[in-house]
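User: Here's a chain of 178 residues. Predict its fold as tokens.
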Amino acid sequence: MSLRSALRAHTADCHAAVDALFGSFNLSRTQDYKAFLRAHARVVPSVEHALEEAGIARLLPDWQERRRVHRLAADIRELGDRLPAPLPPPALHCEAAVWGAAYVLEGSKLGGALLAKATPDHLPSSYLNSQGPKGAMRLFMDRLDATNLEDHAAAVAAARDVFDLFLKAGHLTLEAVP
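Assistant: Prediction complete.
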């Protein structure tokens, strides 16, 4: 089984839970949209930083173009809000874990593109519309497929940890939404 297949199969439940939770935000309402972005801002900065500390640029040389934290921060500021305190980052102690965490962030871009269509034009959406460099997802999947890592468990554990961070952030944020 390829690493991509292992990640897809062993995180499907987490992916479905995150989709269901974040699908409960009504992105046509400014308050919900702010809350949605704040929830992401509890996760994306810490995961991107953890990936950088673990050497993601060695695996994805175009990493700097893939980063979205600056777009997320800009959208939040444009809405007159500020970044919340981030949740603690996942531990990424090996290459497999880096691939697992990156799998979740890169995959979230596809969901973001779909959600951007539900976001009114008057709301800032550079974060949701950010897909990275041309062909970035194809390149990511090609590199993921080319890995010869035998430790799929570490990749799956890291991906599940990142999905769990999104779930925690979503729940914390929803509790605060009026």
